[in-house]
Design brief:
Structural class: alpha/beta
Radius of gyration: 20 Å
Strand order of the largest sheet: 2-1-3-4-5-11
Largest sheet: 6 strands, parallel
Helix content: 40-55%
Number of helices: 11
Strand content: 15-25%
Mean pLDDT: 88
Shape: elongated
CATH architecture of the largest domain: 3-Layer(aba) Sandwich
Length: about 325
């Protein structure tokens, strides 16, 4: 797991070096072609102003997206970008938001694709309109089908397999993988990966927009099946709800989760949560915006046609001390 983190740090370092070189090249007089959907004209990159739309499937109250937005806003501030952020957890409504931004002729577009069949055609329309488009966070297996340039996110199947392997080694036994939004490809992919390396596992669907309901559903499952040894959740808030469910049910199950916030980090430090898989959402938001700026000002295409992975990165008792300071400012 430490080698995974070192590899990711190396990737970020290489990417940062690429951005620095590109910035130097742009400041030396790189020109951006076209206007409206293709980018601004005239002057060096430092003099150019762009409008980039970021459209996600953020659900109300989900603090995970604070990190995405913090990263995106930091990149926008660094590169003289106006960031239009909007969100809707309904795939059809998210597609409409994309269509609206295409109609307004933004210079670049960054989208999440939890339901590629519903969202992909709207993103493809942006590509066909000459708007540089990247995907991030969800849709890593489908973005190329719609002509999208780049993708930034975790490999969900690999992440799920990493969780299943660690559970099988550290706390073998029956595992329940909790999905808070049925049908979202990235969440389904995580639990499918868990099942590959922790074969005694099953999926439990909950309503992730109602945390008391989440707690009740998990609690009922634990009372029904006292042999459950592990609860795997796919979001930090769901992990905390599952802890309460375990306590109420008098279960000895342990919690492992995906994603990280300050509360989960504290629970890992205190031993209440075994570990989490960090996909580094701040990096996803930052790179989605920065990659569009690089494409608009210098013609760069990061990743060489392959996804740029921001995870999976295991966070547990072995490395929580070095990570916990970053969780308070929503950059981890």
């Amino acid at each position: 797991m430490r080698s995974t983190r070192r590899s990711l740090q190396a990737l970020v370092a290489v990417t940062a070096a690429t951005m620095a070189l590109a910035a130097c090249s742009s400041e030396g007089g790189a020109q951006s072609e076209g206007g409206g959907g293709g980018g601004g004209g005239g002057g060096g990159a430092a003099d150019q102003e762009f409008t980039i739309a970021m459209i996600t499937h953020e659900a109300p109250g989900d603090t995970f997206w604070d990190k995405i937005r913090n990263g995106a806003e930091a990149a926008a501030a660094n590169h003289n970008i106006t960031l239009n952020y909007s969100n809707d957890p309904d795939a059809g409504a998210q597609a409409t938001l994309i269509q609206n931004q295409v109609s307004s002729q933004v210079d670049g577009l960054a989208v999440t694709m939890p339901n590629p069949d519903a969202i992909g055609p709207a993103a493809q329309a942006a590509v066909e309109a000459g708007i540089p488009t990247v995907a991030f966070n969800a849709g890593g297996d489908a973005y190329k089908d719609f002509g999208i340039l780049m993708y930034f996110g975790s490999n969900e199947d690999l992440a799920g397999q990493s969780v299943g392997s660690k559970i099988s080694q550290d706390n073998p036994g029956k595992t329940v993988c909790v999905i808070q939004e049925q049908g979202q490809v990235q969440l389904e992919g995580r639990c499918a990966g868990v099942a590959k390396t922790a074969p005694d596992s099953e999926v439990l669907y909950v309503n992730g927009r109602d945390l008391p309901s989440v707690q009740q559903t998990i609690g009922a499952k634990l009372q029904q099946d006292t042999s459950i040894a592990n609860i795997v959740t796919l979001g930090a808030d769901i992990a905390l709800a599952s802890q309460k469910a375990i306590a109420d049910a008098g279960s000895s199950a342990q919690v492992a989760t995906f994603d990280l916030n300050a509360d989960v980090a504290q629970q890992i430090q205190d031993g209440g949560i075994a570990f989490t898989v960090d996909q580094q959402p701040y990096v996803q938001g930052y790179m989605a915006v920065t990659s569009l700026w690089l494409n608009l000002t210098n013609g760069n295409d990061i990743g060489g046609g392959a996804p740029v992975l921001t995870g999976p990165s295991i966070v547990d008792s072995s490395n929580i001390e070095q990570i916990i300071p970053y969780t308070a400012n929503n950059t981890r």
